[in-house]
Amino acid sequence: MTRRAAVAEAADRTCPRCGTHREPDHRYCLECGLALPRVDGRLPALRRRWLRWVGWYPGDWVWVSLLTLIVAAAGAASAIAVSERREGGGSTFAAAATVEVREPTTVRATTPTVDTSTLPTAPEPGNTAKAASAKAQQAARKNGRFVWPRNANGWTIVLVSYPKTNGRPSALATATRAAKAGLHEVGILDSSRYASLQPGYFVVFTGVYSGKSDADAAVGTVRQAGFGGAYSRQIAR
Q1: pTM (2 decimals)?
Q2: Domain termination residue (choose one: 57, 82, 101)
Q3: I need a surface site. Which of 57, 100, 133, 136 has the fewest CB within 10 A?
């Protein structure tokens, strides 16, 4: 079985939040209580085909976006065709205008004298960029917008997962609350970009750990901060 086929099969047989096995007729996860997406009907069939073709799934909203794009493209093509038909129906004549050209008058500019001894010294470009980057990172840590290291694999602690269809505001609010509660390195992951996560969700996480044992050791602290359903999870591309 190819990796894309395995991802499509896992989307129908596991809980997108905790990965627990589910049956097709289950409506809620027996482990974490999440309302499970349906696996029968036209929309789940389209989701499975997408996963087999691409290997990741952005969310059910993609079908509405594709339909809107097709309608917009058709409307644009119709407008262009009508415009070309109207322009081809007649001829346009332009009368040549006589323009009088005069020689420009030369004006001698006087350069003012400026005392450069009192001007402020510009900061070094490198120091300014480093200071701005450090300030942005500090702000991201405070408001729950920490970014997972690029091209890095590891372990983290998942606080809550929200469907991508309409869960971004809730994910942002949860991340902000977790950062204010004192949790470190709080951010949001798009699960569709990581092979170890169920596609189609915004995952609120805290911490970047090199191994499972380190992440498991910190789960208790996270739960005491008010996130009783927190659990460790591997993050791999």
Answers
A1: 0.45
A2: 57
A3: 100
Contact 11, 51 (CB under 8 A): yes
For residue range 22-72, list pLDDT tens digits in order. 787 777 887 787 787 777 767 777 766 766 666 555 666 566 777 788 888
Residue 142: phi, psi to the nearest 5?
-75, -35
State which residues form the domain around 189: 138-235
> What CATH number corresponds to the domain at position 161?
3.30.70.1070
In a domain? residue 88: no
Q: 3-class SS at 34?
A: coil
| pLDDT tens-place string over residues 88-97 | 655 444 444 4
Residue 16 near residue 51, CB atoms below 8 Å? no
Average pLDDT on 110-115 reads: 59
Q: Return the H-helix or E-strand segment holding 130.
A: helix 125-143
226 lies in some domain: yes
* CA pair distance 45, 8, nearest whole angstrom: 10
Say which residues have a Cβ less than 8 Å from residue 192's Cβ, sequence separation at least 6: 56, 57, 58, 59, 164, 199, 200, 201
